[in-house]
Amino acid sequence: GQRSAQGVDGQPMIDRLLSELQEYHHSTCRRRAEFRTERSELNARLVRLGHELRSEELMGRDLERRIETLEAALQRERAEHEHLLLQNAASDDVAIGTSGPLTADTLVVDCSKRIAAQVQEDADLLAAYVERLPAIRERSCRELLRSRLREAGIELATPTIAKDGRGNETLKDNISGESGTALEVAQLDVSGSGPLEAAVLNESPELPMPLWGNKQWTLRSHLDGARCLVIDDQLNAMVSCGEDALVKVWDTSPLWRNAPQADELEPYATLRGHTAPVFALAYRQQDRRIFSAGRDCNIRVWHLPEAQTHDPYGMHLTVQQRSLRAGLLLGHSDSVWSLQAHPHLAYLASASADGCVGLWSVEVEGLRQQDAGAMEASFTLRPPTSSSSDAQVSLPLDLPACVAWVPSDAARLLTGYVSSRIAVFDVKRGTQVLELLPATSHASRSPSNADAAYQHLLCTTSASCHQVLQFAVTGHADGSARVLDLNSGRFVATLSGHSAAVTSVCLDPAQGYGLVTAGHDGFLRHFDLRTGLCCQELHLHRPKYSEAIHSVCHSKRMLATSGADGNICVLPASEQGLMRNVEQ
Question: Of 49, 167, 273, 294, which is most buried by a Cβ count within 10 Å?
Fold first, then answer.
């Protein structure tokens, strides 16, 4: 009985000890978690500060080298200036007939006299010019500046009021580019049921669409218009080319680390070798090689430099440039407008203004730095005409504007022409398997004698093929993008909305039902192919001589555009920017 009483009395003490031990254990675990969190934050801060310190050191070295270069230039200029002064003073003494050695005092006196005479002459000339000016300004300088900007094709950043088809006014800002209406229905022509409608357009619209524009970085390095872009997400590398005949390689990792002054990011490598503007780029991720081509008719092959080992300010820049050159492809006789590397095989397709669609073998063993590769095959077509075959042979070649491989069929190559024709070639058999022309719309149908001129307005500018399904999207000069079903060989949808030519189209490589179009109106439009709706509209580039956006590249992590203003806009996918399309 006594033992049971003692057990009953000692039970609360044991419970209290257990609760204290549990509380101590919880507090220890909490402190340990806080310590780990604080340690990870400090490590992340240390890494960020290390990167900032390294960038500051690189900037300091760059500034020191620039200062040394400027000092050397100043010393040379001073030496040349003193030499010229001595020569002028000696010539004056010889002309006057004076004799005797020259001294520093005489040189200083002569120089001061000449400077005073020049200043007096400039003052008299300025006074005479000022007398001719009217006392009252006839025209405002601001109005004159605005007129000159309008003549140059530069739009002012002022809000404009636009009217939709129902007469409603919407305020559109030229900076952000997003109109007041949230969604805009595209003009769809889905008459008849086909594989494309069942596979894509009628796919479940419940899956969200990513939004862009939450953040935006503008990269400025090209001295003229930037024409093309390619992106490697695994290496955090982006390659751009432009009309300044340069190919630049960018390291995009600082953008994802939220590094300060990301807009001031500079390319870590510049590839030089072209003698004319560069219009097209292609990239093979398997062997990390870059292909570039342009107005000089040559296709140059480069090794992608690594950001960690490449030194843009090293002592052996010429040796570095030579080591990056991987080969040269010769065969075209005019400008090369488009390049496309095969997604699986070591082949490259090109479209040139000489009328040829070229096929190149880009095996690593076959390309050497000292040897020039030759074209393996070429495809040419005559412009579409209703005349006889004899008359068609006399016509010049139809000019290809863009090429795109069909990933779902390794032997198919889609080509868009200036005459608005779309052709698909079987490169394995060397035959043409599909040819069609976009139909004219009822709203803008031309008379029968002007059908050829209107077909020229439908010039194909770009093309993009789906990674899995048998369909492609083409951009045209009439401001529309058209969806092509490769199985049935017909256009099944027309996505409109641009007020100028659509210069670039790109399908979402991750989801497959998103389409991004860009044009010379400076706008980027994001479509949902399942519903045919425009989900987003962004104004990214300002026009220059009636040109704005030249290229758009859609990767799995970001979206990048290059424009005639020489800028490159990078847009990451918004983390919380997922929306659901609702049919209106």
Answer: 294
CA distances from 73 to 76, 77, 282, 315 (A): 5, 6, 40, 19
The upper half-sphere exposure of residue 182, i.e. CA atoms within 13 Å in the direction of its Cβ, equals 7
> pLDDT class for 460, splitting at 50, 70, 90?
very high
Element (H, E) at 558: strand 558-563
Nearest to 401 by CA among 462, 480, 479: 462
| Closest among 266, 158, 256, 174 to 215, alpha carbons compared | 256
pLDDT for 156 equals: 57
Dihedral (Cα; 338, 343, 346, 348), 10-degree rounding: -10
What are the counts of helices (DSSP H) followed by strands (DSSP E) for the chain?
8, 33
Of 256, 228, 261, 230, nearest to 242 (Cα)? Answer: 228
Residue 255's nearest CA partner among 240, 237, 270 is: 237
In this structure, of 145-154, 334-343, 553-562, the range with the lowest mean pLDDT score is 145-154
Q: Where are the alpha helices (DSSP H) in 101-209?
A: 104-132, 141-151, 195-196
**b/e sequence 396-409, b meaning 16+ C-beta within 10 Å:** eebbbbbbbbbbee
Q: Which helix (H) or strand (E) holds 549?
A: strand 549-554
Question: Do the beta carbons of residue 301 and residue 327 sit within 8 Å?
Answer: yes
* 182-210 residue pLDDT tens: 333 333 443 333 444 444 554 555 567 77
CA of 574: how far to CAs of 419, 524, 532, 557, 578, in Å?
A: 39, 16, 22, 10, 8
What are the DSSP E strand ranges found in 299-430?
A: 299-303, 325-330, 336-341, 347-352, 357-361, 372-374, 377-379, 400-405, 412-417, 422-426
From residue 340, how far is each of 305, 347, 385, 433 by CA, in Å?
Answer: 21, 9, 28, 19
Residue 255: pLDDT band by 50, 70, 90 thresholds? Answer: confident
Q: Which range is least confidently modeled, 74-78, 196-200, 408-412, 552-556?
A: 196-200
Residue 163 burial by Cβ neighbours in a 10 Å radius (0-12, 13-18, 19+): exposed
Q: Are 360 and 382 in contact (CB under 8 A)?
A: no
**Dist CA 33 CA 476 (whole Å):** 58
Mean pLDDT of 100-122: 62
Q: How far apart are CA 149 and CA 205, in angstroms?
A: 44
Beta strands in 173-320 (DSSP E): 184-185, 209-212, 217-220, 226-232, 237-242, 247-251, 269-271, 278-284, 289-294, 299-303
**What are the angstrom distances between the C-alpha of 406 and each of 65, 411, 461, 468, 557?**
49, 8, 17, 9, 23
Chain position carrying tokens 């002028």: 88
199-208, 231-240, 405-414: segment of lowest average pLDDT: 199-208
pLDDT at 129 over 70: no
Nearest to 212 by CA among 562, 538, 565: 538
pLDDT one-digit tens code per residue, 485-535: 998 889 999 999 899 999 999 998 887 788 999 999 999 999 988 888 888
Per-state percent for the chain, helix, strand, coil, to nearest 5: 30, 30, 40
Task: Tokens for 69, please give them.
Answer: 């270069």
Which of 164 and 558 is assigned the larger pLDDT? Answer: 558
Q: What's the CA gap between 380 and 210, in Å, rounded?
A: 40
Which of 238, 229, 233, 214 is CA-nearest to residue 538?
Answer: 214
